[in-house]
């Protein structure tokens, strides 16, 4: 039977428990063999702020996912030069394992931008899209082609990377918002201190 692979794309600056719960929930609900976390290269939607070096974001993602045998991390986006487009991510991962069935996991906020993504029609031929609930965003607000996207409710985690960065900058704790190893990595590398 074809392997079923989830793809969790993100800036992961830093990765937090909202990402991990979403990935775990979709893994279980869709009986995925694996969920691949794919940290972005220089993200085109975030060119307004400095994004941490790809290597730091990659390593935090590795640290956060290492203990889950079904989670892995891919470097395809950080090794491709230029901005990251989801269609390139899907093409690259499809090329690695052409027989696998791909499930692209995305939060409610990113889902509403899906139709503005590059090559939107091709996206739906490369993967199933799974939209997950995220506190503060309404899945019902997204107007998507019917049948192309599964919408599922995941345990609500009102956590964002933006809030984690702001907390670190203010000297507030991020314990229990991000995995312990990520707290330690942030402090070791002095990330987000401004
Ligand atoms: P930032 O605040 O920098 O935008 P973020 O917390 O939104 O960071 P991203 O790396 O932008 O994290 O998100 C990657 C993916 O994870 C997106 O599809 C996003 O919708 C989803 N996601 C992020 N946080 C949550 C959460 N708390 N619950 C569910 N999905 C989430
Ligand atoms: Mg985001």
UniProtKB/TrEMBL annotation:
GO molecular-function terms, A-Z: nicotinate-nucleotide adenylyltransferase activity
Pfam families named among the record's database cross-references: CTP_transf_like (PF01467)
Catalytic activity: nicotinate beta-D-ribonucleotide + ATP + H(+) = deamido-NAD(+) + diphosphate
InterPro entries documented for this protein: Cyt_trans-like, NadD/NMNAT, Rossmann-like_a/b/a_fold
EC number in record: 2.7.7.18
UniProt keyword list: ATP-binding, NAD, Nucleotide-binding, Nucleotidyltransferase, Pyridine nucleotide biosynthesis, Transferase
Domain Cytidyltransferase-like residue range list: 7-167
Pathway in which the depicted protein is active: Cofactor biosynthesis; NAD(+) biosynthesis; deamido-NAD(+) from nicotinate D-ribonucleotide: step 1/1
Keyword Nucleotide-binding: yes
Tree of life domain: Bacteria
Similarity section: Belongs to the NadD family.
Record's function text: Catalyzes the reversible adenylation of nicotinate mononucleotide (NaMN) to nicotinic acid adenine dinucleotide (NaAD).
Protein name per UniProt: Probable nicotinate-nucleotide adenylyltransferase
Lineage of origin: Bacteria, Bacillati, Actinomycetota, Actinomycetes, Pseudonocardiales
